Fold these 2 entries.
Entry 1:
Amino acid sequence: MRFVRWLRLIVAASIAAAVVATLAETASRTTINPFNFFGYFTIQSNLIGCVVLVVASVSRPDSPRRDEAILLLRGAATTYLVVVGLVYAVLLAPLGAAGGVPLPWANVVMHVIVPVYFVVDWLLAPDRHPLPWRKFWIVLVYPLAWCAVVLVRGATDGWVPYPFLDPSSGYGSVAFFVALITLVVTAAGAAVWGLSRVPAPGTPASPRA
């Protein structure tokens, strides 16, 4: 587990470096609007992932409730970053859209490397046990809140983080993509919750929850 903890800290540092470098690069070209810069699902999900990795690395489980809380955070972060990777690969990369990360190496870190790492960490790290389905709703809170804020901003000040959420394309199209994002988050979350029941290599099977 010591190797896993250090690896998580290294990945967390990589996320922080990518976000800071992107912020600096953007600031060198234009005035930073923090509500815009930090409004991207990619940026927010990576920051969530960074915090979760640090918490999972430095904490020592001292109660079943604390252990479950950390695992729920990991499960949620893994879900969001899987969605980041899928949306980038399917919707943004074909359009040549940077998705809020115009710096090439930082784009690769946040859209490719980090999502892949979270999946590998979820599958192979030994500090995992079955997540309770009764708490699956937790994974949907942040994405739905994010969509709501984006829709309000798109209808008021006109800013949207991704072209497929632009109201100028028609609210029917926007509604379709919001529904699609919700479906993808639900499916990704269900996969993460389901995989929590698959024992990591070298660990005994856990009882179902």
Entry 2:
Amino acid sequence: MIVATIRRVAHVMERVSLLLGALCLLYMVSVVGLNVLARIVFDATGTALNLMIPGAIEQVSYLLGIVAMAGLTASLSHGMIAVDFLVTRLPRGGQALVARFWFLVLLCLALVLCWLFFHDMQATYARGEESQDLRIPMFLIYGLAMLQSLALAVVALREMLVSQGDHGEIA
């Protein structure tokens, strides 16, 4: 019952992470592409026409962390990629045990990140900190990172409970 619930929640979190990562990546590519074109126009007009997106570097840098966390969360359903001379020679049960151990390590890492991002979110909210160029409240950025860390923890928990030692490069 509990494992089935964790599976359902983890599946939803994987799908949301995949969608979030795809949207953020699409936005990042668009911002960078438009800024490159705007820079060409800027240089061609002798700096008379500036169409560059304000805070583009800031936007892309904050979204990069979210894309990385979302990608990691979404990719775990196919097992971890492992290039290991020893583990592949273990019996199926041994491979599952090793995989579950690494998912436990990943779960602990995700929970530590979640805890740290939560405290950073609280601190930046209390201080009223904003990003440098766009004045985005920093607690929103840390909050999104905390939610992505939580999603990673739930997916790692599911994989720790059900993994049979499958590897992403073999599947």
